[in-house]
Structure formats: C-alpha cells, structure tokens
Here is the input.
Amino acid sequence: MKILIVSDTHRYNVNFIKIVEKAGPFDMVVHCGDVEGSEFVICEAAGCPVEMVQGNNDFFSNLPKEKEFMIGQYKVWLTHGHNYYISMNNETIKQEARAREVDIVMCGHTHKPVVDIENGLTLVNPGSISYPRQENRKPSYVIMEIDRMGEAHYTINYVD
Here is the structure.
C-alpha cells in the first residue's frame, strides 16, 4: 500500500498535481490541512480515497477539524496541529496522541517535514508541498508504504 501525505497546499496545487502524476498511483492521499477551498481539486487529482482535515486557514470549510481512521493495522489520528502548539514543539501533540491510543499522528502547520518515531508512536508532518519553511526551502511531502508484512515505512521527499 502506498500513501501520499501532504499538507499546507494553501490553494497552490501545482506541486501536488505534479507529484501525483510523477510518483503515483497512490492507494490513499492524506492531506493535513490548509487546503483553502481546493478540496475538490485535491480529491479529483488524487484518483484514490482521500482523508483530509481543515487547518487554521481553512475558513468556512466543512472539513472536520480532526479524524481518526485505520491504515492497515495502524490507528491514525489526523489533525492540522495548530491547536496542539506544534509550532513550539512536538510534545503536546504526542501526549494527546498517546492519550488517544493511536499509533500514528499526522499533522502539518509548521511547513517543516518531520518523521519522529518513538516508543511505538509515529509523528508524521510532511511539511508544505507549496510553501516550505525548513532550511533548504524545498517543497516536501511524505510517502508512507505498507510492506507485505504490514509494517509502515516513511520517506520524506522533495519536489524537484
């Protein structure tokens, strides 16, 4: 199973469409918020099931603020992260994830990619595929792959 994880497209969908065409097909797309009214474009371009939540810039959105769902054997909590002080550090969101008894928390907001695996909890922040803020300033996304044994593997990727 191959899952594309993105965040913070902010209505600039060129890189998202480029990655879907280049690296797809995908079995699922997860968008961690700040889609800014591009829900239909994202779903149409993905060509597969899409899980999506609203971010702090998704004004007037009907998207849920948070979601919990399964990917294979993993319980996933999807949130934009801004309500859990993600810009400060990952500790508050990780505490909440443990309280919810999830295996993976997927979030965005910081525009900086992170895959943090610690004590049975994985935090995935794909950064921003449109407006990066990390040192190299390259738009980023994460590909999650579930192998034949059901184990998850994560790769942070950058748009050329």
